Amino acid sequence: MSELEDRFTEAVAAIGGVLKRHGFRKKRYVWTRVGDGIVHEIDVQRSHGNSAGSVRFYVNARAYVAEFDRAIGRTLPDDPTRANAQFETRFEEVSDWPTDRVDVERDADALGTALPAAIEQVVAHLDGITDAPSLARTLRESGFVLDDDLFAWYCATGRTDDARAQFGAARDRFGAEERWPRLAARFEEAALEYGISLP
Fold first, then answer.
1. How far apart are alpha carbons 5 and 44 in whole angstroms?
2. Does one domain contain both 187 and 126?
3. What Pfam family is a match, any one (predicted)?
4. Containing structural domain, residue 172
5. Chain centre to alpha carbon of residue 54
């Protein structure tokens, strides 16, 4: 095993040490924590561009809430760990890690300190997703303005003002684009299903 692969193994162990303390269970490079209808998942994804002289990886975080899917009429799987996550992000989006990947050579000094600290921040972010409303809040705050399921959830649960606010945010961001009529039609079709009028 090369020195870089040894560092990669050490980095994965550092990540795993943090996640084990927070109740995650490991299967290869995926750590999962299951609660009552809630799944939090963090994984390490090796870069396709790795070589003998360069080993890099990404860290992804996901959350699934069964209550959210139930509200919009989606069939729930028997095993929630097999469900499609409603929230997914890269760890640098919710931590102080400065780049979109970990380079085990460039970041060697950070693997035992800054990397575990960033993983703690990711866990804290996932800790905030405890039910459907907190998932919706996370999606909204993360800028998921085109998320059809989020819009459907707002409509299905009678959160009309939130549904209209999401539509407005999407229009503000994408209204000048050629595709906006198609995007607006998706919102309007969902709103019509729930008897909600959009501005």
1. 14
2. no
3. DUF4304
4. 143-193
5. 27
Percent of the chain with pLDDT over 70: 99
Are 17 and 73 contained in the same domain?
Answer: yes
| Angle subtended at Cα 83 by Cα 165 and Cα 140, rounded to the nearest 5 degrees | 15
Sign of CA dihedral 70, 20, 61, 5: negative
Q: Rounded to the nearest 10 degrees, how much is the dihedral formed by the CA atoms of 59, 69, 39, 112?
A: 20
Q: What predicted TM-score, i.e. pTM, was given to this entire model?
A: 0.93
CA dihedral 6, 7, 9, 13 (to 10 degrees): 140
- Sign of CA pseudo-dihedral 11, 15, 18, 21: negative
Secondary structure, 3-state, 38-63? EEEEEEEEECCCCECCECEEEEEEEE
pLDDT, tens digit, 9 for 90 and up, residues 17-42: 999 999 999 999 999 999 999 999 99
Q: Which domain-ending residue is among 110, 131, 152?
A: 131
Q: What's the CA gap between 149 and 105, in Å, rounded?
A: 40
Place of tokens 């993983």: 119
